[in-house]
Amino acid sequence: TGKATQVKLVLLGESGVGKSSLVMRFVNREYIENREPTIGAAFLTQKCHLDDRSIKFEIWDTAGQERFHSLAPMYYRNAQAAIIVYDITKASTLDKAKSWAKELQRQANSGIVIALVGNKLDLAEGESEDDNSSTEDNERQVSEEDAQAYADEAGLLFKETSAKTSKNVDAIFTEIAKKIPSE
Ligand code: GDP
Ligand code: MG
C-alpha cells in the first residue's frame, strides 16, 4: 500500500478521433454520442491499481492544439505519459499521430511512456472471425498489422480501442501504468 504514484498524462491527436470519449470512458465509465467538443483543455484524474502499487493519472485532454499547434508543448512538457490517438476509419489521422510521436520523442521528457491508440474499433466489426457474411459495415482504413509494425519500430505501446464499447480502454491505461518506473 502507500501513496499512489502521480503521473501526468497528455492526450494528443487530430480533432474527432475520440480523445475526450476515451477519457470519459476511462474516468466516468460512460460514452455519450455527439458530445460537446472540448474547449481548451479538460483535466481529469483516475487511479489504476496494479498488483504492487497504484498509479494516479492526471489526464490532460487537449483541444485547440489541433489547430493551434504551438499550444501543445504547454501540455506535454513534464508529462510522464502520452496517448496519441488516431481513428482507424481515417488514414490521415495516423499520419498526424506519427508526427506527434516524432515531436514527443524530440521535445518531451526523455523517459516519457508513449502509447499509440487506434480508436473506433467498433466501426470495423464486420471483420470478426465468426462473421463470414459481409464486410459492408467495415469502415477500417488502417490495418492493425501496419499500425503495430509502426509502433514497434517507433518504440510505442499500441492498442486498438473503442470508447463506444470500452474495448481495450482500461487495458491501454494499465499497460502505460506498468511502464511507469516505481518511485
Ligand atoms: P476528440 O475531438 O478527439 O476529443 O473526439 P471526441 O471524443 O469528441 O469524439 C468525436 C466523435 O467521434 C464523437 O461524435 C464521438 O461520439 C465519436 N467517437 C468517439 N469514440 C468513438 C468510438 O470508439 N466509436 C465510435 N463509433 N465513435 C466514437
Ligand atoms: Mg475532445
From TrEMBL:
The keyword Nucleotide-binding applies. Residues 125-136 have a biased composition (Acidic residues). The keyword Nucleotide-binding applies. Keywords: Nucleotide-binding. Residues 125-145 are annotated as: Disordered. It comes from the Eukaryota. GO terms for molecular function: GTP binding; GTPase activity. This is Ras-domain-containing protein. The chain holds residues 18 to 200 of 237 of the full protein.
